Amino acid sequence: MQSFTAERDLQPSSNMHDQLWICEHPPVFTQGLAGKAEHIFMAGDIPVVQTNRGGQVTFHGPGQVVAYPLIDLKRAGYFIKEYVFRIEEAVIRTLLYFGVTGHRVAGAPGIYVRLNDPTGHTPLPQRPQKGASATPDFTGLGKIAQIGIKVSRNCTYHGVSLNVAMDLEPFLRINPCGYSGLQTVDLSTIGITVGWTEAAEVLSHKLATYLAP
After folding, report:
1. CB-side neighbour CA atoms (13 Å) of 61
2. Which of 17, 59, 71, 148 is paired with 36 by a 20 to 30 Å CA distance?
3. Rg for the chain, CA atoms, rounded
4. What is the predicted pLDDT for the residue at 12?
5. To which H or E segment does residue 162 belong?
């Protein structure tokens, strides 16, 4: 991703098309630029990789769809805040395709589901809105998608991961995204049976749609 983005600096933007990389990682903890060592309790046999994305520590592993949009934001015509919103919207629409309602939480990028009602449509009181608390409130929620991005010279890399059907135990070894006690879930945990390939195809389509200029 870094090489691709650096190469874009050497060529006219019209010569390099945007790309969307979809992958599935072997087990790994990744630390963001602001990552603190104390947020990892016991890495064990899982490697810890330092990255230059934003945010704190998260886990990637089999059964999770990881998407890396490599977008020229200047050419796309929108800024970083809207870029993150569009990624979140793509995840929300992906979850909706499988009958699940995804939610945003004020002050905490990513997408969450209600643990006791993952298909209900009632808006969260802790959703982003005027007057929302600066301290994220995760009461009754599980995080199902993580976002960590990097923007260099208006070009994006790193991205978003969606938990489909994975071993969630490694999330218990860390403070996910730097938040103590934040519960992590996947689609299988909330009763949705879907294969990795289908989830990857739907997320890819939604990202391509919502990240378009």
Report:
1. 16
2. 71
3. 17
4. 62
5. strand 155-163
- Within 24-140, strands assigned E span 28-31, 48-50, 58-60, 64-70, 103-105, 108-114
Model pTM above 0.90:
yes
Q: Where are the domains of the chain?
A: 2-210
Residue 155 known to be catalytic? no
Q: Which of 177, 190, 200, 202 is catalytic?
A: 177
Other Cβ atoms less than 10 A from the Cβ of 111: the count is: 25
Which residues, at least 6 apart from 15, have a Cβ–Cβ distance to it below 8 Å? Answer: none
Over the stretch 109-120, which tens digit does the pLDDT of each residue have? 999 999 999 999
The fourth-level CATH superfamily of domain 2-210 is: Bira Bifunctional Protein; Domain 2 (3.30.930.10)
Residues 182, 172: Cα–Cα separation, whole Å: 9
- pLDDT for 9 equals 74
Instruction: Give me 54's structure tokens.
Output: 């934003």
